[in-house]
Design brief:
Layout: E1 5-6, H1 17-28, H2 39-59, E2 66-69, H3 72-87, E3 93-97, H4 102-113, E4 117-121, H5 131-137, E5 142-146, H6 160-170, E6 173-177, E7 196-200, E8 211-215, H7 242-283, E9 288-291, E10 303-308, H8 313-322, E11 325-326, H9 342-346, H10 351-354, E12 357-361, H11 368-382
Parallel strand pairs: 1-11, 3-4, 3-5, 5-6, 6-7
Antiparallel strand pairs: 2-8, 7-8, 9-10, 10-12
Helix pairs in contact: 1-7, 2-7, 3-4, 7-11
Length: 389
């Protein structure tokens, strides 16, 4: 069987060799609890402190502003549930968008069940939130606004700086889920008008099971979701996963060091691949839709989301897997559920188009030879009757 091709980096990234090497001592010999006072425990505490500083520097923040969590999902919940509970005990109003990750949408729905009012901002055909819509939606009782930086399905990069300025003008706290952007595009929280920001380890070639949450120094401190020993500034109790924290910092630092050349490498690959996919579909007489921003600089580097009209995206994923090619039919968290993407539906796409969607997301190891093999294989699988609806 040919060498496997992995094109689902938006779902998760492989553990980088440098990350594994950095983690190894804390998986074997340096295993002490970092809350202890003896030498080996203090060494683990020092490793956490160093990792926190590294993550902070990569994001243009200070170490005191970074809280490690068990995942990006947990960090998003801390933002939505923890911040609103800390600001007021009386249900108020929050704003998000229709295309957020479930890690934001579900906490918002939970608040609705508790009497909160939630405004879900629409997006245009390319997946962008309008700053004017945010301005129109903000009310005197708006406690929090949460808009993702880069969409996990179609890669749309939101005008975060403009949205953040609007929130500051109206006195509303602003959170952004930057899981898909961290390590791919510059984030400078010393100037970006964001109060809370979420990132995730396994999106930057680090281990799964670890996220980080940025809290600006003058922002309201969230009410904890987990109580216990008071770790992570009292916001996330539980003995720290030292190896994962060290690995996360190593992975994020690696991505930030390679960011500019990697972005320049991926851009022409994206454009060439889209051209080849379009030609392939045209040769087969199958309408192809490029979902999300048409300008590659307006989307997360390496993200390509296309719909083959009349085809079934899930079936295409399975067929490509038989050729050793790993892709997604949309959000990884919902890839097993055969229903139209809520993101594509919010962008105005029909069920027919949405159900025929495949997302290709590239990473550090992706080459044109990988992408060209996809183009060579696609005609074989697109002719399969089982793929058609």
């Amino acid at each position: 069987m040919p060498t496997p091709i992995y094109l689902d980096h938006a779902a998760t990234t492989p553990l980088a060799p440098e990350v594994l090497a950095a983690m190894h001592p804390y998986l074997e010999n340096e295993f002490a609890n970092p809350s202890t006072l003896y030498q080996s425990g203090l060494a683990c505490r020092k490793a956490i402190d160093s990792a926190r500083q590294t993550v902070a520097e990569c994001l243009g923040a200070t170490a005191e502003q970074i809280v490690f969590t068990g995942s990006g999902t947990e960090a998003n919940n801390l933002a939505i549930l923890g911040v609103t509970r800390a600001i007021t005990q009386t249900p108020g109003h929050i704003i998000t968008s229709q295309i957020e990750h479930p890690a934001v949408l579900e906490p918002c729905r939970a608040l609705e069940q508790q009497g909160w009012q939630v405004t879900y901002l629409p997006v245009n055909g390319e997946g962008f939130v309008s700053p004017d819509d945010l301005t129109a939606a903000i009310r005197p009782d708006t406690v929090l606004v949460s808009i993702m930086y880069g969409n996990n399905e179609v890669g749309a990069l939101q005008p975060i700086a403009a949205l953040g300025r609007i929130c500051r003008e109206h006195g509303a706290a602003f959170h952004t889920d930057a899981v898909q952007v961290a390590g791919k595009l510059p984030i400078d929280l010393s100037i970006l008008p964001v109060d809370y920001l979420t990132v995730s380890s396994h999106k930057v070639y680090g281990p799964k099971g670890l996220g980080a949450f940025f809290i600006r120094e003058n922002a309201t401190k969230p009410t904890p979701l987990i109580y216990g020993g008071g770790q992570e500034h009292g916001l996330r109790s539980g003995t720290e996963n030292v190896a994962a924290i060290v690995g996360f910092a190593q992975g994020l630092e690696l991505c930030c060091q390679e960011m500019d050349p990697e972005r320049q490498r991926l851009l022409p690959l994206q454009e060439k691949f889209i051209t080849s996919l379009t030609q392939c579909a045209q040769d087969l007489g199958i309408p192809l839709t490029l979902n999300g921003p048409q300008n590659m600089t307006d989307r997360v580097p390496g993200n390509i989301n296309v719909s083959f009209d009349g085809m079934t995206g899930e079936a295409m994923v399975v067929k490509l897997d038989l050729y050793g090619i790993s892709v997604s039919s949309g959000s990884a968290c919902h890839s097993a559920v055969i229903e139209p993407s809520h993101v594509l539906k919010a962008m105005g796409q029909s069920d027919e188009v949405a159900l025929g969607t495949v997302r290709f997301s590239m990473g550090r190891r992706t080459t044109w030879e990988d992408l060209d093999r996809v183009v060579q294989v696609l005609p074989k699988i697109l002719k399969t009757p089982a793929l058609k609806r």
